[in-house]
Amino acid sequence: MNFGFNEEQELLRNTARKFFENECPSDTVRKLMETPEGMSAELWKKLAEQGWLGLIFPEPYDGMALGLVDLVVLMEEMGRAVAPGPYFSTVLLGGLAILEAGSDAQKKEWLPKIAAGDKRVALAWMEPSAQLGPAGVTLTAAEKGGTYTLSGTKLFVHDAHTADALVVAARTRPGAGPEGVSLFLLPKGTKGLAVTLLPTMDQTRKLCEVACSDVTVGADALLGAAGAGWTPLSRVLDRATVALCAEMCGGAQKVLDMTVEYAKIRQAFGRPIGSYQGVKHRAADMLVDVENSKSITYYAAWALDENSPEAPLAVSMAKAYVSDAFRRVAAAGIQLHGGIGFTWEHDLHLYFKRAKGSEFTFGDATHHRERVAQLVNL
Amino acid sequence: MDFTLTPEQTSFRDEVRGFLSRSMKHDWVARLSQGSDIPRPEAYEMLRRWQRQMYEAGFVGLTWPKEAGGRGLTFMEEMILQQEMALAKAPPVLNILAIGMAGPTIIAYGTDEQKKRYPPKMLSCEEIWCQGYSEPNAGSDLASLQTRAEKDGDHFVINGQKVWTSLAHIADYMMLLARTDPAAPKHKGITYFLLDMKSPGITVKPLKQLTGDAEFNEVYFDNVRVHESQILGGLNNGWAVGLTTLMYERLALGFGLQVRLRIVLDGLVDLARSTKKNGVPVTQDPVMRQKLAQMWIDTEVFKYTGARAITKLLKGELPGPEASAGKMMWVEGHQRVQELAMEIQGAFGQLTRGSEWAVADGLWQHTFLRSRANSIEGGTTEIQRNIIGERVLGLPKG
User: How far is CA A9 from the centre of its chain?
Assistant: First the structure.
């Protein structure tokens, strides 16, 4: 047993930390989050040059063929920088959906372009019901003479407004179960497709509404077989969930680091506030939250890489734990900083808001605890 | 990152499994105090026999060097053993303070003679050890201890009192911290002695706890003579030696604690399944499902954080203050399990052993009450947070 990172992974961590410190310091983050796009073409190109846009894609599609455990390292560093941009939506959602569900031709067409930074693909799966299981997919895709007509609304779609194409989950057969869920790949500008950017609490992560009004496409727009979309989609969501947890771990660690540094220098009643147990003990609790979050996230990533039967359970344990932990840590960070922590100028609110957004992405702790209960046969 | 076992580790695991399936008696679990690592008085004899059995099969002191009677294996094997014991719901060994603390400290600081003399009899349970640290006025602030050891020729004469001393009434030896230089700063004048509990002048009085049991004791020393060859790690060096013991305590207990938490959690899930409220099993109640699932998650998280610590150890790093986090997590987790057990039982939670209406013969009532000590014994949760704050995060001392 070895529950640590290898030399290459440590190297990746060092490289990524320096990269984001140089290329994505907080003034860049703030500049980008104020723009509707929420990204910079220049930064995107640099991510491509590092090979990170294709990190988890297989080599035939110009990827680096690395695993989720490797990706965890990169995601932690992105979370540390509270990096904005469509990495998450393109690589882990749209890209992975094509990898998991697409035909070889579709993969060949899209994945190398994603890896090169030339194309971005988003994934539209949730709807206004915010229901997370297959029953939540109600957008209809009616088949008639070899064409499909899609009608309905998708919500909480990451970066749809800057994507070149959307993977849309739709129902080709009525019902609430997994059978009948199909995935469609719709290029930007498809007739009847309307994307609206939504104002979000976490400005570093852009969310959209995607409305389909009688979007008519051919069967070649199907990603994989009709009706067989839920299995690959759930594989995508499990992987993206762990990647998100890793990003949250990185953010939580950064909040802890900022807080400890501040507690060492900020004086009250003639001594550093970190010497008071009221502060010290809360910082200790933050550390426990951060370390535990990492442990369960690393395990879930490993379980997914190994295709362990325990992987879905590990994923839900991770998301349940980390959702609560990052929220607690980010809140404690603000509290221990006092008034300065509540200002717009201080970076803490970026992490606090990221924690809140991440908490509800792919299901909150309550949702995942129930999934754990089911998976362990409670 | 790799959680799979090597062929050697797999065969060790099979060896453990074989032993446990041959040796475990299934009604043992119910007779044990589930929550405590300090065994209940009524279980002493059974646990002594159990340790003897484990010892003869070669499963006590895995990581100790061969000269000390151990097997010279790594913490990986220790972890495998603990995991398998959890799966089999095996009881802990009786001589836990010797195996977890006194032994490793003697191996680290002892003279050749001390290393030859003491560890083997710890493993075989021939000599039980207790820990003489805490005093009525020295708990969390251990360094202010007042028990004195005054030099008299080649002996020291001990006077004073220890308290909360588990197993003292059946112990053969004590790890004793006593003040040998009252003039020195408080951390510098302490010496660590290996004290024979049969020495004249020692009085052990049982201390009845809020559970009604007397697993702890008060120990009084009235001119107890101890030879200078019984000093461990040098005169006035007791603070450093004593801290090593505490570090091993948290580490060794760390493995065991995760196992014990798993066993208690499994018991809790069984309790929830078999308890009905409003005509349906408690496990069908959405609020209880949330609480039970969180408990399950926290227990697993504890395991993987432990695994990360073990990975560090296997790479040759010493047990560090991180062990404090493990102790805190266990305490919080275990106390929450016990509260949940009460919540599940509802009104029946009030009934103790002796009533035919009591759930599981009142076992949970005992473990629930006992669990309040968890956040005090072995370093209070407040002290653990200080250690994490100061020694892991580098925050200034108060």
Answer: 20
| Long-range CB contacts for residues A109-112, cutoff 8 Å, separation at least 24 | A110/A165, A110/A185, A111/A54, A111/A57, A111/A61, A111/A62, A111/A63, A112/A54, A112/A61, A112/A62
Angle among Cα A317, A318, A323 to the nearest 5 degrees reads 110
Do A4 and B312 make contact, defined as CB atoms within 8 angstroms? yes
pLDDT in tens, A160-178: 999 999 999 999 999 999 9
Tokens found for residue B90: 């095996």
Identify the residue with better confidence: B248 or A352.
A352
A369 vs B293: CB contact, 8 Å cut-off? yes
Determine, yes or no, domain membership for B2: no
The pLDDT tens digits for B117-151 are: 999 999 999 999 999 999 999 998 999 999 999 99
pLDDT tens-place string over residues A63-109: 999 999 999 999 999 999 999 999 999 999 999 999 999 999 999 99
Chain A residues with beta carbon closer than 8 angstroms to that of B386: 277, 280-281, 284
Residue B232 and residue B245 in one domain: no
The answer to whether residue B256 sits within a structural domain is yes
Q: What does the alpha-carbon distance between residue A208 and residue B68 come to, in Å, rounded to a whole number?
A: 67
Residue B115 to residue A104: CA distance in whole angstroms? 67
Expressed as residue numbers, the domain containing B146 is 129-236
CATH code at position B178: 2.40.110.10
Q: Hey, what domains does chain A have and what are their CATH numbers? A: 7-119 (1.10.540.10), 122-226 (2.40.110.10), 231-375 (1.20.140.10)
Does pLDDT of B68 surpass 70?
Answer: yes
> For residue B389, which residues of chain A lie inside 8 Å, CB to CB?
274, 277, 280-281, 283-284
Q: Please calculate the CA angle A151-A156-A162 and round it to the nearest 5 degrees.
A: 85
Q: How many domains does chain B have?
A: 3
pLDDT digits (tens, 9 = 90+) for B3-44: 888 999 999 999 999 999 998 876 665 555 444 455 677 778
CATH code: domain of residue B68: 1.10.540.10
Which candidate from B304, B382, B397 shows the least CB-CB separation from A296? B304
Same domain, B86 and B149: no
Residues of chain A contacting B12 with CB distance shorter than 8 Å: none
Shortest alpha-carbon distance between residue A306 and chain B (Å)? 9
Tokens 């010290």 locate to A280
pLDDT computed for residue B31 by the predictor: 56
B384 lies in a domain? yes
Last residue of a domain, one of B88, B123, B158: B123
Out of B382, B394, B398, the one facing A276 most closely (by C-beta) is B398
Query: Within 13 Å, how many C-alpha atoms sit on residue A196's CB side?
Result: 9
Tell me, yes or no, whether B140 and B27 share the same domain: no
Residues B230 and B253 reside in one and the same domain:
no
The yes/no answer to whether this complex scores an ipTM above 0.85 is yes
